[in-house]
Amino acid sequence: MTDHTVEDYWEHAPSGQVIADPDGRMIRANATLLGWLGHDPNTLSGKPFTDLLTVSGRILYDTHFGPLLNMGGELNGVTVDMVTADGRRLPMFLTANVKTDADRRPEFLRISIVDASDRRAYEVDLLQARQQAEREQGRVREFAETLRRALLPPVLSPPAGLDAAEFYYTASVDDVGGDFYDLFPLSHTTWGFFLGDVSGKGVDAAVVTSLTRYSLRAAAVYDGDPIEVLHNLNTVLSQELGGELNRFCTLIYGKLTRSDDGFDVHLASGGHPPPLLFYADGSAYYVDTIGGQAVGITSEPHFVASRFVLAPGDTLVLYTDGLTEASTGVGRERYDDEGALLRFAKAHSPASASAIVEAVSGLLEALGSGVEDDTAVLAFGVPPAR
Amino acid sequence: MGSECGPTVLLVHGFGCDQNLWRHVVEELRSEFRLMLIDLVGSGSSDPKAWNSTKYSSLAGYAADILEILDDLDLRDVVFVGHSVSAMIGVLASISDPSRFAKLVLLTPSPCYIDDDGYRGGFSASDIDELLESLEQNYLGWSQAMAPVIMGTPDRPDLQDELAETFCRTDPECARVFARTTFLSDNRTDLPQVSLPTLVIECAQDAIAPREVGAFVNTHIPGSRKVTLDAAGHCPHVSAPVDTAAAIAAFARLT
Does A67 touch chain B (CB under 8 A)? Predict the structure, then answer.
């Protein structure tokens, strides 16, 4: 290879080339760069390299790229805009390294410049795509939040003489869980309530939740017996879903009837975790609802009912399995594997509805990211006699 | 670090990068002075939890940090060396509590970057808007452009191990706020209040702090001196460390 060839390559390489002093003053620029920028040869010598950049490029170079190059010995594809003699902007990539002397002190800078119009356009696209994705995610969250709230009662309206409290724990802000609950009047002396959990999450689960909610409200008016209400729901879910969605739900449906100094409770369970009873004397028990099946699975399901009295100082607590199934962080252990919930209940009994809901929300908070599913908690309590 | 008995010299970096930029200057000064280096909050290896975009929207926030450090260490007679915007941070700190400082060294300072009636800062308001916009819009390229440089420095293996991973990797969010604070600040009226012996060091060619600005600072700080280095660019401590260190040392040791 002749010197002439090397010289030709320097001048006409497919990239702009600059040799500069360590402080950035140009010693020589090649013909390619001069051509791009429209400068005469010899006019650049001795001028700062940053004169070729836009003002913001100059500031970035002087505060970041230049020091980086000097300290690190290398600059790898940073982006700047250069300005042509007639004021046009050219998006460029800079790559550079440092020639050092025997004492490793910088002797001069070697700077290569390549056109970055396409890549810059691509980066802008990428940035816009990222911003778009962030906006979309915001919309999804807003939508999920609205849907979630629409499936829950705005405010509980308990009968006089009964305190009610509820808590809903959202495991994922991007998704809609299938938990639901409600408390509503059926007559002057009777109120209906339910709390349940549709299998799965997302829009499909929300559809079933919505269907379940209005079926229960309608069935409750039609027939007062909790077992019949669950059978009615089972029929609706089987007809409407026809097994297609492969969705089912577990729930507790019940009635509260005012009695002398408290409320009679008559409830039925369709495969749902048993409610907890906190008695005024400080004891705590599960309501016996063992043996019921989930709603929407078979055409002739078996449900179990239970009757008891809520006397002054007693509190009934319903919850979904987001709580009992929460991961404790110890291996694959779940919160209620070893009866932790009943121990928790005994430790807190007696408790008012609001006190126990607050305690459970604290427990969910403590379990943190271990709570993988949405969790609903609903409590009714008869205030202690004075 | 440095000498146990010499005067204490505090070196503070400006907008861009961190205390590593003082590396070559430190080599020159360490035999004679007791040296202290810091990373401003939001830069270098500073604690990300200390970041507060409201506090650091004014230079007073940074100046308060300087005074807090000197109070905590109960240091007095400190020679404050501030590069670029940190020169003004030092000016503000010394006005607020001169008792901590012996002298100020302002390395390529500018009290105001934007041109004004009868004042030439070197930039128009739209230049600075464009810079801030390019920081806001280009944070993708910005943060990624910084990354590769840290990896390999085959020509200079001496630096490869030593340069911290955080070198020049500013969080884009902090960089935006710091850029805005830096380039929109106007401390011209603070200069006459400086009561300490002050040295202005400027470069022969500096696009960010041009000669007129160096002269302005020199004129408005009573009794200040000025040294002009035969260097180009805004970072003479990087590109001309021997001359920069010599100017700092001569002034710091002067009694």
Answer: yes
